[in-house]
Amino acid sequence: MNWGYYIKKLRLEARMTQSELERKSGLKRSHISNIERGVYKTYKPEIIERLAQGLGKTTKEIIDCIYSEGIGGITEKSKEETEEIKITCVLNGNIYSGSLKLVR
Question: What is the pTM of this model?
Answer without folding.
Answer: 0.65
